[in-house]
Amino acid sequence: MRTRLVVIHALTLAVLPAAARADRRYYAETYSATTAEPGGVDLELWSTLQQAPRQGGLQTWVHQVEVETGLTDSWDVALYNVFQYQQGDVLRYQALKVESRYRLSQPGEWVVDPVLYLEARKEFVEDKPWAVEEKVIVAKDLRRLNLSVNLLAEQEFLPGGGTELEWGYAAGASWEATPMVRLGAEAWGAWNRPAGGDAYRFTAYAGPALALAASRTWLVLGAGWGLNDASDRLRVRAILAFQF
Fold first, then answer.
1. 2-243 under CATH 1.10.1740.10, yes or no
2. Higher-pLDDT residue of 74, 6
């Protein structure tokens, strides 16, 4: 029995530092203030279920394959390929995205940890023009508690020179139950104008988040229920990552 306990303790010590070093997500929608390790390669597999709004619509699955690497201790870049399956249709290649994050300070150096986020996206399903999204990410670790807030703006460049604007937010709180398990909750929303619409609408969601990690693999599960009629009834997301 003593030998078995020694082996378990040794394996735990070997696993926990790797999990602590990893660019690990705590939430399904909200970004925390981290960047990828320099020189490493992260493969992330995203799956999101969007159930139709209360007034009717189709159920949609969105799958993303992300490859990410750290360029420096503070700067990373990622490439996304996005696929969409809508109820009654076939799987389609939806979009190509390029994302970059830059950390302004080392963890714990400032009152909050800030990260700047920039994303460029080209959608192909509806042949939409390029769009650019910016995020300001701030987070704070209070021992085992993490608090994260994201503010975002997006510009979609329309044919003829017009620009469609969107604003949004996301916020989460996560508690480290064990070094491998975090329990949390998050809320997010956006102000945007739907395709073909004249008026802006507000969508809002809230729900739980579960983050699991072992060595250089992690999994996030999250769900958000729509809080008004303009929102989807339910959004569920899983993100599985392998870090090399």
1. no
2. 74
